UniProtKB/TrEMBL annotation:
<dbReference type="GO" id="GO:0046872">
    <property type="term" value="F:metal ion binding"/>
</dbReference>
<dbReference type="GO" id="GO:0009055">
    <property type="term" value="F:electron transfer activity"/>
</dbReference>
<dbReference type="InterPro" id="IPR051459">
    <property type="entry name" value="Cytochrome_c-type_DH"/>
</dbReference>
<keyword id="KW-0479">Metal-binding</keyword>
<dbReference type="InterPro" id="IPR009056">
    <property type="entry name" value="Cyt_c-like_dom"/>
</dbReference>
<dbReference type="InterPro" id="IPR036909">
    <property type="entry name" value="Cyt_c-like_dom_sf"/>
</dbReference>
<keyword id="KW-0349">Heme</keyword>
<dbReference type="Pfam" id="PF00034">
    <property type="entry name" value="Cytochrom_C"/>
</dbReference>
<keyword id="KW-0408">Iron</keyword>
<dbReference type="GO" id="GO:0020037">
    <property type="term" value="F:heme binding"/>
</dbReference>
<feature type="domain" description="Cytochrome c">
    <location>
        <begin position="148"/>
        <end position="257"/>
    </location>
</feature>
<protein>
    <submittedName>
        <fullName>Mono/diheme cytochrome c family protein</fullName>
    </submittedName>
</protein>
<feature type="domain" description="Cytochrome c">
    <location>
        <begin position="10"/>
        <end position="113"/>
    </location>
</feature>
Length: 276
């Protein structure tokens, strides 16, 4: 009995950890309202979108979802009723999550207090209101495939923490540009998401310990302080990284091939030397 309770507590702790560093709590919670009840606004070039209620509410949340429903939503961007989710939900990254992590995450969400808060209606641009266009987009931009064996750092960066959702430049249709992974982008707010490769325009001078500390505090030894979207991400998500995972993320980023800032490449054209 005690052993079962201990295992359940450990599983719930693991699920909470995944929900935090995966952005579930940060993106699906609004200050002053019920946790995980959704309603957070995301302004994009394609319209205004709101996070959904992911509490166990039977009416407004995911209380009726089976594990298969949850897996299909997370990995393919498909709702239980067959609707395609808008890609503001980063299912393309979550497609690489392990079944074990998905199970732990759903177990945690199922144990949270249910909120009967209704989901807000998205306000997409006119051209995106047709269901077939979303389905077409999902065919054009399939989920990111997970390699057979990933380091812990790559698993965190590319999938669970979905760093590329902000730090990778996108094309006019909202898909990721070729050869742009983690090379920096401009967010919908106009704020820059910097280059995360070990290039002189990125993390070249950063040590693993400095990156790990920045992810958890938003401060560096050079006096840099996180602001805007990164400050919010640290406050709601990456500050909870444990020592091993913070180190794994830092080491993976510094192992990437150095690449110049992709925003400069777009501005000056593909023939410029820094686009290579």
């Amino acid at each position: 009995m005690l052993a079962s309770a201990a295992l359940a507590a450990k599983a719930n702790e693991q699920g909470q950890y995944l929900a935090r560093i995966g952005g579930c709590i940060g993106c699906h919670s609004v200050e002053g309202q019920a946790p995980l009840a959704g309603g957070k606004a995301f302004k994009t070039p394609f319209g205004l979108f709101y996070s959904s209620n992911i509490t166990p509410s039977l009416e407004h949340g995911i209380g009726r979802w089976s594990m298969d429903d949850f897996r299909r939503a997370m990995k393919r961007g498909i709702a239980p009723d067959g609707r395609a989710y808008y890609p503001v939900f980063p299912y393309r990254h979550f497609a690489g999550l392990s079944d074990q992590d998905l199970a732990a995450l759903k177990n945690y969400l199922d144990q949270q207090p249910a909120s009967e808060q209704r989901n807000k209606s998205h306000q997409p641009n006119l051209m995106l209101r047709a269901e077939f266009l979303l389905q077409w987009w999902q065919v054009l931009y399939p989920p990111l495939a997970k390699e057979a064996a990933l380091s812990r750092g790559q698993y965190l960066v590319d999938h669970l923490m979905h760093c590329g959702a902000c730090h990778t430049a996108r094309d006019p249709l909202g898909g990721f540009r070729d050869n742009a992974s983690l090379r920096g982008a401009t967010l919908a707010s106009g704020n820059p998401a910097p280059n995360l490769t070990p290039h002189e325009q990125g993390l070249l001078l950063w040590e693993p310990e400095t990156i790990a500390e920045y992810l958890r505090t938003g401060k560096s030894e050079w006096g840099q302080n996180a602001r805007d979207e990164m400050r919010e991400y640290i406050d709601t998500s990456s500050q909870y990284l444990n020592d091993a995972d913070a180190k794994a993320v830092a080491e993976y980023l510094l192992s990437l091939p150095p690449a110049s800032d992709f925003r400069a490449c777009i501005k000056h054209g593909p023939r410029m030397h820094f686009c290579r």
